[in-house]
Amino acid sequence: MASQKGMPSSALRVLEEVLGMGSTAAGDTAEAVAAEGAYYLEQVTITETSEDDYEYEEIPDDNYSIPEGEEDLAKAVQIVQEQATDTQILEQKTVLSSKHAVPEAIEGFLCNFLIKMGMTRTLDCFQSEWYELIQKGVTELRGGGHVPDVYTQNMLLENENKILKKELKHYKQAADKAREDLLKTQKERDFHRMHHKRTVQEKDKLINDLKGLKLHYASYEPTIRVLYEKHHALLKQKMLTSLERDRAVGQISGLQETLKRMEIGHSFHAPEITVVPNCEKENAPEGPTQKGLREAREQSKRKTKMKVNTKDSVFPSDMQPNPNLCLCKENICPAKFDYKLNDIFRLHELPVSCIIMHPRKDILISCGEDRVWKVVGLPKGNVLLTGLGHTDWLSDCCFHPSGNKLATSSGDTTVKLWDLSKGNCILTFEGHTHAVWSCTWHSCGDFVASSSLDTTSKIWDVNSERCRCTLYGHTDSVNSIEFFPCSNILLTGSADKSLSAWDARTGKCEQSLYGHMHSINDATFTPRGHMIASCDACGVTKLWDFRKLLPIVSIDVGPSPGNEVNFDSSGQVLAQASGNGVIHLLDLKSGQIHKLMGHESEAHTVVFSHDGETLFSGDSDGTIRTWS
């Protein structure tokens, strides 16, 4: 039982501090003591024979039971420890502590503050004066009180704030590092993405090139067949030549014996020796070798006589008026684009390489890889004349300004001039070391220019029958060449992706134009001569201002290669023959592109009629298509 006794107030304060009660609890206790007096503890013993009516609840001991067969002491102790640990965890989660934290006293707070600030002398003065007042009894311990919770909380918050600031700094550093890693990763991603796109583009380009090579290889099969037949013919000719050689050796040996006999004087039959063999030669048929030798001797004699009597031609010194300027002014008809396939002429056994229109008549000339050129009458397409003489495929041809002569270039490295009235070859220019791709006449008719795979171009004098000048400057095959209308300026397009303008009188390159990214296949002037059109191996067509020597526009109709470009007589429409068999028509005024579909394979060449009402295109299957 508890009883009330009087206790000194100092003892109560000591008891409160020992029990850890807060300032609020101490205040409540003081009020209770003032009202009812002090309490003290008294020991009470309860005997077993207590007869009170209270019923105690039995606590089940299931949690501490040991399973059967596991009577091991160590395992039992471990199980008990785990259960005790689980019980403590549950109590921490469910039971709230009823004790209050002992707040810090005012004097302790002041001492800690002075120590923290390093004010040692002030601390010594405070402690000496404070404890002196306590010993004298002037100041009671209770009067000092405790530090309010808000200051303690502020200190805790300050510590947490410092910790959070350190963590924030660490997180910022981690974020900066992560940002740098992210930027680096993004750059690597962009680089790999760009590399992947470039790889895909190169793969597509290689696939297209492979398809083009397959088609090109397929087009070589007829050529191989022709070469095989040519090989057999040459073998037969070789056998015949060897037989003729043996017969000639026998005749020579007989003549030598006859001469020996004449010297000795046994039998001298001068008339028989000199006349009879001649009669035999006149009556005996000539072999191909003897016939070729005789023709070569006669031709060399004619050339020698002509060279003795001819001199070098002179380039025109003044610019001649361009007749196409008047034609362009007179031609005010609107441009035509609604061409439809009208007819197909089969003229060659191998691909058609070139088509040109006669400058005055309604006839055209086509050249093929079967080594033949043909004069075709329009509009029926009947063959008027056939020219044979080149030993390899024909690449290009060009009319003399008068229209009565023709120049052809070939893969046999020669340029030949033909008389169209008789259909025979009148002159052959030899000097290139590789195939000749293109040829063109000067407007005066005295010069022919040619471009070759040997990276050079040559200017030939028709009258003196010699090369007047060789143009050096391109680093790859020169695929096209053309004279500027009525002038001494030459335009060349090369596989080194550049166009060059040359002065034919000096052989110097006056200007080069750069802009194509692939090999240039063809280049030409407008009829007025103020503009240049060029196409390359990836289907890109460019227009250039020839007066300013600057690019005007670029049109990409690829990826199939552009094989040839040509203007109509008005200069308003540009036609391009494409490797995929499509003829592209470009309206220079509106910029619109029209397509003509009708070729079954690759379109090699395209040309307009004089009135612009008809279009002619050459196919790799040896046919010419007319569009009107």
What does this protein structure show overall?
By secondary structure, the protein is of the alpha+beta class. The chain has ten helices and 30 strands. It has helices spanning 9-19, 23-36, 73-94, 106-117, 120-136, 141-144, 149-264, 270-283, 288-309, 323-330, and strands spanning 3-5, 38-40, 341-346, 352-357, 363-368, 372-377, 383-388, 394-399, 405-410, 414-419, 424-430, 436-441, 447-452, 457-461, 466-471, 478-483, 489-494, 498-503, 508-514, 520-525, 531-536, 540-545, 550-556, 562-567, 573-578, 582-587, 593-597, 603-608, 615-619, 623-627. It has a four-stranded antiparallel β-sheet, with no helix packed on it. It has a four-stranded antiparallel β-sheet with strand order 4-5-6-7, with no helix packed on it. The protein is elongated and about 175 Å long. The model is unreliable at 1-41, 94-100 and 266-284 (pLDDT under 50).
